[in-house]
UniProtKB/TrEMBL annotation:
Lineage, broadest ranks: Bacteria, Bacillati, Actinomycetota, Actinomycetes, Kitasatosporales
Keyword terms: Antibiotic resistance, Cell membrane, Membrane, Transmembrane, Transmembrane helix, Transport
Residue ranges constituting the ABC transmembrane type-2 domain according to the UniProt record: 58-287
Biased composition (Polar residues): 1-13
Protein name per Swiss-Prot or TrEMBL: Transport permease protein
Domain of life, per lineage: Bacteria
Organism, scientific name: Streptomyces hydrogenans
Amino acid sequence: MSTTTVTKASAGTSGPVGAGPVRPVRPDADTRIGLRANLRHIGALARRNALQIKQDPESMFDAVFMPIIFILLFVYVFGGAISGKGNNDVYVNYVTPGLMAMMGMNIAMGVGVGINDDFKKGVMDRFRTMPIARSSVLIAKIVVELGRMMIATAILLGMGFLLGLSIHTSVLHLLAAIGLSAVFGASLMWIFILLGLSLKSAQAVQGMAMLVLMPLQFGSSIFAPTTTMPGWLETFTDYNPLSNLADAARNLINGGPVAHSVWMTLGWALAITVVTAPLAVSKFRKKT
């Protein structure tokens, strides 16, 4: 066999000599995977992530204990100062819907840390060799974290009811507040996924996340009314998505105008997802 013939044969992955190279299958081509298969992949990967939590129950400590600690601290430390001594029930109805917004943001931070850790362990490299949609790996993470968020929210509301929380509207309004928090929390997860894929270590992800979290949480209406804030800070809180979410959840539970806050929250969630989700999927494909 001549050298030319051998070169032709080795140029492709298979096929007869002289037939030209055979184009390899690209497992990262999401467009070749149907919706049903994609949903099946998301379900399998979500089950894998849930089993990881089952094998490591300590990973649920933040979702279980954080809402208990936060509501007790804020009600008994700040409640008397803001609502007056002996009026903790008033502050419980104010702060609990705000803490629902805060829970979503804190749980979302864990997604980025988990993604970064999975890359360090080589788990994501194995997923990228499989003929599955790359977005399904990330969406499965979000699905499981939403489950953790719902557990944290249920514990928060349970503690709220023990401390005097009352629903002045209806159960449907309460469910709407929970759903709105979940939608916004899912959008935030894309930000932290992108951070987890972009930064080199889990510590860096946590540090950057805190830089994002602190101004948004405390420069908002989550813990106290904004009317006593300086004008420039009050303007910031008006556009802060956490303020809009907290106000929407608060008015859904306590009664009051909700249209503006709800639409602002949904608008923020849509804008964050549209911008960061494609960037996160693209980064996931290219990350080495």
